Predict the 3D structure of the following.
Amino acid sequence: MSVRNLPPVYNKIAQHAVFPKMNHDERARYNFLANLNKHLAHVSQGNKTAFENRVEPKFEQEHGRKMASTEELKEAISKDAHYQVWSSLRRSTMEMRQQAGRSIVLRQAEELRDKVRALNEGKDSLVLDDSVEVPPYLLACDNHIMPGSYHTELIEDDVTPAANYDTGLFVTTAGLLGRYSDGGGKAIVSWVKKTYPDFSPKRILDIGCGMGHNVLPIAKAFPDAEVIAIDTGAPMLRYAHARAMDLGITNVKFMQMDAAKTTFEDESFDWVQSTMFFHETGGKSIYKIMDEVYRVLKPKGLTLHIEQPQYTDDMSLFEKFIRDWDALNNNEPYWSKMHDIEPIELMSSSGFREEDFMQIGAKAENDLDDGSEKADEPEDHGRSPIWNVFGAIKN
Amino acid sequence: MGEKIDYIKLASNKPKGKRPYFHDDPAVERVLNITMAIAGELAVMRERMDSIERLLEKKGSISREEIETFVPETKEQEEQRQTWHAEYIGRILRIVQQEQEELENPDKSMEEIANDINEM
């Protein structure tokens, strides 16, 4: 057995009718980038050593006291040669991943659009509304350094932002989310089925669904439920709907809607779910969205939100700092601010009772995991499929 | 249709949001990014050669279509290919690893060692 955990070869990724065509060298380029990501995740331990062995001692010598904040830490470590080259390589890897993905999907933008159109034509389960505005927090920068983000359309009825996202998630996460990148959705289904075996939701709402990769396992697990998945990005919704059609999942309605101002009736859903969504919103919107979750949820209804791990008081300054690396350098800026909000306060401000609040840990279910023994390796902060789930039953 | 887009230029667009630079001199960042892109293309070429070699070995003659669609056929082949990438990255990022090792176990300078040896 290898002493390192190699990422799966790219051709293991699941194909479906609207998945972009990729040639030999495009798969090879993604294999290189997955390995490079993996390599940097190992090397990132060097940042801790550099911090402890030279950055921190130097600071204390110069200032005659310990570091007091992550801002001070950032200023000090930014001058460290190891941190500089690691950061530079990590940023470069993410830029190369975007370039590689876009060079795959943009050359076939029209073919992808036409395939999606054919699958979506005449279906009332895709509802686009061009009066829905892209929220300002998504216009402030391009999340995940994806040029054009989730919403930009380079041709009429463009789907390339979603197609690019679909090809690349497997690379950034080294395949740890499984062949369909749906390990988060699968994990939440397993937890819900185990914890509430009698729960049979009639209506489920997924907010910020993106390309729908995490809502499909939920829809599949509750085939009699009416599932509605909303997002503001039309390219994501078009692609998500066509993808779901091809994968044979027909109980999801994809609708273009802002989660902060939906058009659903009060108390109309049994379950409201989000997966890796809130950290891509904004400081005021997050409260509006949670208000909306509370409003549309039926009494006794369930809401769950898969998010990045929370900061804890016993976390070192260094750990807090390095956990924010992706937030600041891979364009997920709100994630660096969301730590200041306690999920329990966010939920109680919308009306959920504190005694109904719950918080659990979750790990992606990966259909590529063959059960073989894995070498120990450091957590790749912000990329590891280990999450915090918070939520409540509405009472 | 009539919607042809310049996919080569668009593929390399910059994302919105100021790009962070980590080195004191942006020229270092620039050269590093170009170097890593070349490193990536060499990895792509190596994987293509691997496909050709395996197909030649298997069949004695091959077509370009076969190369285009070749994927590893056994778990062993999958591991060999990914191991090559891991080795290759380890090789080209040698200096980063060595600097990390030096950080973990600082060495004495040659002047200091010379002085030590002088006393041995």
User: Anything to note?
Assistant: The radius of gyration of chain B is 23 Å. The mean pLDDT of chain B is 88.
